[in-house]
Every structure is written in structure tokens, then in C-alpha cells.
Specification:
With 223 residues, this protein is α+β, with helices and mostly antiparallel strands. It contains two helices and 15 strands. The longest helix has 27 residues.
Length: 223
């Protein structure tokens, strides 16, 4: 190999490594925003549709209604990939006559490291359960004392940092706990159910947003 060839090879390797590093950095700086009606309408190759979720109206625009039995969207995407901290937001409406435990959004592995937005239904009310698993650590942020009426639209947020978890409903902090979190690097996304197809959600979802950093209520999505 000549000196010129070696130089060209070295420059190519350096450029490739720099490009990969830049792409990874860009991923950690970019918000993920899903209008759930668009996910359903587009029917992309990365989206599997279960049941027959329906587009419905909401105060914010078109949303998607889930029947609580077999409606869900499964995305071959991991928007939390390698994020060290993030804010996960969702605008949704939980309906009456759903099961007690409902998984509304599941990102990550089915049984290993994962993040879930869940609800628990008690009578005509619900309470938020923001759940994190990181390696052997797991923590639910949930309190049956913090209830809200069903059949109304809500904004929920789950803020995850390397050392704590915080949950919000309609911009008001509900719970906060210490937690050791490591980035999730493998998995997929389920909307309307857990990834292993248990605990179906009954209600509607308008929008999901993931910001790759901790943000405060003043910077949450408008709702």
C-alpha cells in the first residue's frame, strides 16, 4: 500500500467515524413527535396495526380511538435509543368501562429495560402510573390518592434523568423518586397496549412527544 493510499484510507475511516458520531449526536438532540392519527393513516412498513383503531375528533385535532380489547399500534422504532435523559409527553383521553390496569404507551423491551405510561381505573376515575425499568432497577410512580375523572382530555408527562423520575398531570407535578437510569439501547414501541399484548387501553390518544432532555412544565406541549 502506497503512502497516498494509506492516507486516503485513514481519512475515509476518520470521516466515517465522525459521521457516525455526528448522527448519534443529532439523534440525541432531536425531538420525536407523533400525531397518532398520522401514524394510523400512513400505514408505513414500520407500523403494525392491531384490531381496528379509528380516527376520531378531539379538541386539538384528529386523534385515534382504541377499543380496550385489541386495538393498538406497534412501531419498529426506539425513539429513546441511547438517551441519558428525556421528557415523554402524551395528550390523551381515558374512557369509561376499561380494565383496571391499562398500558397506554410502552417503549423499550417487553420485559427488560423499558418505559411505560399507564393508568389505573377506579370507578369513574383514573390515576397515572409512570413506570421505568432500567436493568435490575424498576420503579412505578403511582398513587391511588391522585385521581382524575375519566372521559376528559389530559396531558401527562414523565421526566427521566440519570438519577430521578418525575410525573406530571396537566402540568402539575404528582410524584418524584430517586432512580438510577441507564440508556435504553434495544426495543420497540407499542401504543394502546403493552408490547406483549396485555392490558389494552380504552380511550383516545392525540399526540406523543419525546424531548431528549429534562424540561419544565412551561415548555410542555400546549394542552
Amino acid at each position: 500500500m502506497t503512502s497516498a493510499t494509506r492516507l486516503i484510507t485513514t481519512l475515509f475511516v476518520c470521516f466515517s467515524l465522525a459521521s457516525k458520531g455526528q448522527n448519534a449526536e443529532n439523534r440525541t438532540k432531536t425531538n420525536t413527535e407523533w400525531l397518532v392519527a398520522n401514524l394510523l393513516r400512513e400505514k408505513s412498513n414500520t407500523t403494525e396495526i392491531s384490531g381496528n383503531p379509528q380516527i376520531t375528533n378531539s379538541p386539538y385535532g384528529e386523534a385515534v380511538s382504541f377499543n380496550g380489547n385489541d386495538d393498538a399500534l406497534f412501531l419498529n422504532e426506539l425513539p429513546l435509543n441511547s438517551l441519558q435523559e428525556f421528557t415523554l409527553e402524551m395528550i390523551f383521553k381515558p374512557d369509561e368501562n376499561g380494565m383496571f390496569e391499562q398500558r397506554v404507551l410502552h417503549i423499550g423491551e417487553s420485559r427488560e429495560s423499558r418505559i411505560l405510561l399507564e393508568i389505573r381505573v377506579v370507578g369513574s376515575n383514573w390515576y397515572f402510573d409512570a413506570f421505568a425499568v432500567s436493568g435490575s432497577n424498576k420503579k412505578p410512580l403511582a398513587s391511588e390518592k391522585l385521581i382524575h375523572p375519566l372521559e376528559k382530555w389530559y396531558h401527562v408527562a414523565f421526566v427521566v434523568t440519570p438519577n430521578k423520575l418525575t410525573s406530571y398531570v396537566n402540568g402539575k407535578q404528582e410524584l418524584q423518586e430517586s432512580f438510577s437510569f441507564l440508556p435504553i439501547i434495544t426495543g420497540k414501541t407499542a401504543i394502546g397496549v403493552r408490547l406483549n399484548k396485555v392490558s389494552w387501553f380504552k380511550g383516545a390518544i392525540y399526540k406523543i412527544r419525546i424531548t431528549p432532555k429534562e424540561i419544565k412544565p412551561d415548555d410542555f406541549m400546549p394542552f
